[in-house]
Specification:
The structure holds 2 protein chains of 2 kinds.
Chain A: H1 6-25, H2 28-53, H3 61-78, H4 83-105, H5 110-130, E1 140-141, H6 158-181, H7 183-193, H8 195-200, H9 205-231, E2 233-234, H10 241-254, H11 260-279, H12 283-296, H13 302-320
Antiparallel strand pairs in A: 1-2
Chain B: H1 5-36, H2 43-61, H3 64-90, H4 95-117, E1 133-136, E2 139-142, H5 143-165, H6 167-177, H7 179-184, H8 189-211, H9 221-236, H10 241-261, H11 263-280
Antiparallel strand pairs in B: 1-2
Helix pairs in contact in B: 1-5, 1-6, 1-8, 1-9, 1-10, 2-3, 2-4, 2-8, 2-9, 3-8, 5-6, 6-8, 9-10, 9-11, 10-11
The chains are: A mainly alpha, B mainly alpha.
InterPro entries (chain A): ABC_transp_permease, LivM-like
Protein name (chain A): Branched-chain amino acid ABC transporter permease
Organism (chain A): Kaustia mangrovi
């Protein structure tokens, strides 16, 4: 069950403010990092919605991310649509694919679900890798950015793009929190807790699962469209299955089923990678070890552990009173 | 070209060779899966470790056959360390934690390969008497690839005999069917788990050293083979030898003939097959449990 508690609000606001300050005070490179963090945080939040609250651990979110990027890039460059419409195309593509995967896999459980999503994601990767019309493994260059000059925002400037990405992260978080607090979100949590009982109550379970996946796909697609605008280039590299794994790693490092955790995890992973890369070439090994230790330590993640400690203290205080 | 029977023979042998390689990998994965309920995403990394161990053995001892024996042993040893250090305590946690921990292991292995053996693709030569072509049904075919087919078939037959005819086989089958009941009947299920895990690792190492002369040995070779191997397991069904045989033949031949008959669709064909299986038979073709 999701509650927008005070600590959640405080941490997400602090994170957004911290990112904005880092982008404003840091140089070009800091802004690049901030944009990357914001994009991956959106992807991780979308994954946490289905995995943490719906119990559907997806290994295809990397490919949905890539589909959103390609949807945007193809609509804007090959079809020549204005970037605003291209953004809609990217989001729609992510939602469609997510909904389809959710509908097909709704009966699969546990490891079969994980493998099925892995396979569908890989199918998309292979399709795009082989599609000469989409540039194949060379990718598509020359992706434009949104034109927000009507609002006085110039996305060509790295600072303004970074602030835009942070704003998007805040919006997506608010949207996800809104959805999870609604009746729909509570039903989803109920299905996670006891699917058989929800079915007995007359809830069309597969429909809820598919819709949740479609919504999550729309968010992941949005993250992809943002990433495509950031690098102004898309390639199949964005959707190798290890990208989906990394999204899961981000969720775990921050704390699954907390919604704030994934955003914290994204910041943690990108900053860690940046710091470790300056020390050693083998940051993958460090991340791998951090991941293993996190899971062995109980798997709550950084933010999840914090929230757990705060709640435990509160309960102890209550018991004393 | 397609009317020429020799094309079909060569492609058929290619398909068989790929199938046997996939079989060596997937049989370990599927039995570990069925018996321990453990999802080892690092199985592909163990395959790469086998290939690298083989390369090192050839460098040091100069003999392919030494590598052929030592590489599986080295991988089984690595498997023992993994089992005692990590996997034993992960067995009872859910599939997600297992996926995450073994995903972390993939990262660790990738960098170990890079540190020890470097980023450059390595390779070893097939043993001298297997290096030439051989005439099969009127077609010249590389002898080493025939050796892979024969080895796969031999392992298949050997495992089939062990599982169906020996006491240890009966114990393993009992463990796969119902591990609690097997434990109640006095079987040392823990020890069976451990042995099966080590044998599965050794088979992955064997696949690696056997593949080394055919494919180049690179740090990411394990990640690349992992997805087809998982597909074999899902198509065949968890935990059964029959499933591993059927799955690897289906995937091996679909990939090989897909590439010849419909190159545009080849890459997707396997995934479409998987999607179909998941929709109509979610538990795979020959699941160990009904």
């Amino acid at each position: 069950m999701f509650h927008q508690t005070g600590i959640k609000t405080a941490v997400i606001l602090a994170l957004l403010a911290g990112l904005a300050a880092y982008a404003a005070l840091g140089g070009y490179f800091a802004r690049e990092l901030v944009i990357e963090i914001a994009t991956l945080a959106i992807l991780a939040i979308s994954l946490d919605m289905v995995a943490g609250y719906g119990g559907m651990v997806s290994l295809c979110h990397g490919s949905i991310f890539g589909l959103g990027a390609y949807g945007f890039a193809v609509a804007a460059t090959l079809l020549g649509l204005p970037p605003g419409l291209a953004l809609v195309a990217g989001i729609a593509l992510g939602a469609l694919f997510g909904g389809a995967v959710g509908a097909v896999t709704s009966r699969a459980r546990g490891i079969f679900f994980i493998m099925a999503t892995l396979a569908f994601g890989q199918m998309v990767y292979v399709l795009i890798f082989d599609a000469r019309a989409l540039g194949g493994d060379d990718g598509l260059p020359g992706v434009p950015r949104l034109d927000l000059s009507a609002l006085g925002v110039d996305l060509q400037s790295s600072l303004q793009f970074a602030l835009f990405a942070i704003a998007c992260l805040g919006l997506v978080y608010a949207l996800a929190a809104f959805v999870l607090r609604s009746g729909f979100g509570r039903t989803l949590c109920g299905i996670h807790a006891n699917e058989a009982r929800m079915r007995a109550l007359g809830v069309p379970v597969w429909q809820y699962k598919a819709n949740a996946f479609a919504l999550s796909g729309a968010m992941a697609g949005f993250a992809g469209a943002l990433a495509a605008q950031h690098t102004m280039f898309v390639s199949p590299e964005m959707m190798v299955w290890t990208v989906s794994g990394e999204a899961l790693v981000i969720v775990i490092l921050g704390g699954m089923g907390t919604l704030v955790g994934p955003a914290v995890g994204a910041a943690l992973l990108i900053l860690l990678r940046h710091e470790i890369a300056s020390l050693t070439n083998h940051w993958h090994m460090v991340i791998g070890i951090v991941l293993i230790v996190t899971v062995l330590a109980g798997g709550r993640g950084l933010y999840g552990q914090l929230e757990h400690m705060v709640q435990a203290r509160r309960e102890r205080a209550k018991a004393h009173a | 070209m397609l009317a020429d029977p020799s094309t079909w023979i060569v492609q058929g042998l290619n398909g068989l060779q790929l199938s046997m390689l996939l079989f060596l990998l997937s049989v370990g994965l599927t039995v570990i899966f069925g018996l321990l309920h453990f999802v080892n995403l690092a199985h592909g990394a163990l395959y790469a470790l086998g290939a690298y161990a083989g390369v090192s053995a050839v460098w040091m001892l100069g003999s392919y056959w030494a590598a052929f024996v030592l590489a599986p042993a080295a991988v089984a040893l690595a498997g023992t360390v993994l089992y005692l250090g990590l996997i034993r305590r992960m067995r009872r946690s859910g599939p997600m934690n297992q996926v995450l921990v073994t995903f972390g292991l993939i990262f660790v292995f990738l960098d170990i390969f890079r540190i020890v053996w470097g980023d450059i693709a390595l390779g070893i030569d097939a043993p001298a008497f297997l290096s030439g072509p051989v005439e099969v049904l009127g077609v010249a075919y590389p002898a080493y690839r025939l050796f892979i087919i024969a080895l796969g078939a031999a392992v298949m037959a050997g495992l089939g005999l062990v599982l169906s005819r020996t006491q240890i086989g009966a114990m393993i089958r009992a463990g796969v069917d119902n591990d609690r009941m097997a434990a109640c009947l006095g079987l040392n299920v823990e020890r069976i788990f451990f042995v099966v895990f080590c044998v599965g690792c050794a088979l992955a190492g064997l696949a690696g050293v056997v593949a080394a002369p055919v494919f180049s040995v690179t740090p990411d070779m394990g990640t690349q083979i992992l997805i087809p191997t998982l597909i074999v397991v899902v198509i065949g069904g968890l935990g059964s030898l029959k499933g591993a045989v059927a799955g690897s033949l289906i995937v091996g031949f679909t990939q090989t003939f897909g590439a010849v008959l419909a190159p545009q669709l080849a890459a997707v064909a396997v995934y479409a097959l998987l999607a179909g299986i998941l929709i109509f038979r979610p538990a795979g073709l020959f699941p160990a449990r009904g």
